[in-house]
Amino acid sequence: MKKFGITTILVLVASILGLAFAQDAEAGRTIGDGMVALAAALAIGVAAIGVGIAMAAIGSAGAGTLAERPEAFGQLLIYLVLPETIIIFAFVIAFFLNGQIG
User: Fold this and answer.
1) In angstroms, rounded to a whole number, what is the distance separating the alpha carbons of residues 100 and 40?
2) Domain residues for 43?
């Protein structure tokens, strides 16, 4: 059921983007430009959701670890920073995809 809902949302978003760019056809916009914009949005959105889930698990485990071993702060800081690099990579991908739009 969850997979059906996500697929339905993606199809609706793609359809709306197609209609939006179809109205601006004289400016040289195509359905391909809409799909590239959708890909850029998905790159950021999916990465942000994944990092949010990872940070929740790391943060709660880190708080428990710091309560028992305060000297482990440096190691936990590295664990907290690593997932955030995924967002930076997603932003770079979205930036390059945005450059592909005519």
Assistant:
1) 10
2) 2-99
0.70 exceeded by pTM: no
| Tally of domains within the chain | 1
Taking the C-alpha atoms of residue 39 and residue 81, their distance in angstroms, rounded to an integer, is: 25
The residues near 83 (Cβ < 8 Å, ≥ 6 apart) are 50, 51, 54, 55, 58
CATH number of the domain enclosing 39: 1.20.120.610
| Angstrom distance (rounded) from CA 60 to CA 32 | 42
* Of 11, 43, 17, 12, residue with least CA distance to 30: 17
What tens-digit pLDDT sequence spans the chain (102 residues)?
A: 666 777 888 777 777 766 665 555 556 677 778 788 888 888 888 999 999 999 999 999 999 999 999 999 999 999 989 988 999 999 998 888 888 775
